[in-house]
Amino acid sequence: MYINGKWIDSESGKTREIINPYNQEIIATAAEGNEKDTKDAIQAARQTFDEGSWSTLPANERGEFVYQIGQLIRRDSQELAELETLDTGKTIQESRDDMADIANVFLYFGGLADKNGGEIVKSPFPDSESKVVREPVGVCGQITPWNYPLLQAAWKIAPALAAGNTIVVKPSEITPLTTVKVFQLIEEAGIPKGVANLVLGAGVSTGAELSANHHVDLISFTGGMETGKTIMQAASHNVKKIALELGGKNPNIVFADADFETAVDQALNAVFFHAGQVCSAGARLLVEESIHDEFVEALIERTKRIKLGNGFDESTQSGPLISAEHLAKVEQYVEIGEKEGATLAVGGKRPNDSELQNGFFYLPTIFTNCTNDMRIVQEEVFGPVLTVETFQSKEEAVKLANDTIYGLAGAVWTQDLNKADFIATRLRMGTVWINDFHPYFAQAPWGGYKQSGIGRELGQQGMEEYTEVKHIYRNK
Ligand code: NAD
Question: In this protein, which residues make up the domain named Aldehyde dehydrogenase (predicted)?
Fold first, then answer.
C-alpha cells in the first residue's frame, strides 16, 4: 500500500493471494489492509489537502503532473497490459487497448486542469460584482471493481488530481496489480506525498471505512448496485458527495434495415467481449421480428466459433470469468433462464476442452424466446449470456428497451437515421450508440440514468464531479 508517500504493509501483517483466473496459479501476494490502514491513508490525504499546497498549486502545474503520469503509462503500457491480463484473464489485445485508453485519460485531464477559469455573473445589484469559481471538493475516496481494474481507477484518479483534490484509492481486492504499478508511476511523476494514497483490502473493511469516514468529502464508487446502496447509506452519515457507476442490462436494438453482417458481429462483440463482464455489455438483444430467424441462426453459428483460451495467446477471443464464485453465479442464472422457459439456443455450460479445466471458463450462451418479465432479461448476469426478444415497431422497441431498472447504455442498428434518432432521443440511458457498440473515450461523459448510477465520469462533466461551485459576491 502507498500511504503518505511510503510503501507499507498492513499494520495487521495480513496478506492476500492474488490468483490468475486462467489457471488458478498464485501470481502475487498483496497486503490486506484494514480499517486502521484506511484511517491512516485518509489522515494523510486530509492533512495534505488542508495544508493546501496541492489544491492551490497553479492548475497548469497540477495538469503537468497528471499529464506526466499519462506519459509514464504509455512508456510502460506493455508491462501494464501483461499484468492486467495475468490478473483478470482478459485477452492481451483488450489489455493493450485498455492501456492506450488509460494513458489518454490522464493526458486529457492533465490538459483540462487549467481550462476552467470560472465565470462572471451579472449581479442585479448596482455597483457589485459576482463571479462563480470551481474549487476541489477535498479528500476523495475512490473504490473500483475487478472487471476493468486500471481503467476504472484512471477515470477517477486523473480528474480528481487535476481538479486539486487529494485521494485514497481502494481497488478490488481480487485485481490490485495494475493499480499498484500505477502508484509507482505516480511516485515517479513526483506527485507530492499525501496527495495520492493507495489502500488494498476487502470492501467490508477498507471500502466501508472510506465510505463512512467523516474526513472523506466525496466517495466515488464503481461496482455492483447492492454495494452502491450500502456505500450510499454509509456516505449519508456526513453527507458526503457521492458518484456511483453501477450495473447495466443494456439493450441492443437491431432493425431489419441494418447492415446484417456488421450487426450480427457486433451483437456478439457487444455481449461476449471480456466474457460479458462489462457494465455496458449488450446483454439484451431486441431484433425486428421480420429478420429474427435469420439473425439468430447467424448468431448461433458464429458463437460456436468463439475461441476461449489463455489471454496471452493472440488467437484467443475470450478469456475466463474472474472467479469461482462468479462462475457459479453465471451458472445459476442459466438455470433460472431455463426454468423460466427461455430456449437455450447455444452454450449453457462449461467447455469440455481439457486445457481450460483449471480456469473459470463458461461457454458463450444465447437464450431465445425471452420475454421482458424474465429474471434472465431483467437482472445483470455480468457474464457471457445473451437474451433475444423481438419487436414489430420502433415504439415497441423503445418500450421494451426502457423497461428496466437500469439506464447505462444502449445501441440501435439501422440505416434510417431518422429512426436511429427516434430511438436515441427516447432511450433513458447515459450513452446511446448508433450503428456501433462499446465506444467510449476520455472526451465524452460516461454514466447511468436510473439505478445505473449517480453522476458522470470522463469528459468535462467527469472533472466537474470533483469540484465544488462557489459564488463570490463583492459590493464595490
Ligand atoms: P462489487 O460491488 O462487488 O465491488 C466493487 C468494489 O467495492 C470492490 O473494490 C469491493 O472491494 C468494494 N466493496 C465491496 N463491499 C463494499 C462495502 N461494503 N463498502 C465499500 N466498498 C465495498 O463489484 P464487482 O463485483 O467488483 O464489479 C462488478 C460490478 O461493477 C457489476 O455490477 C458492474 O456492472 C459494475 N461496473 C459498473 C461500471 C460502470 O461504469 N457503471 C463499470 C464497471 C463495473
Answer: 7-472
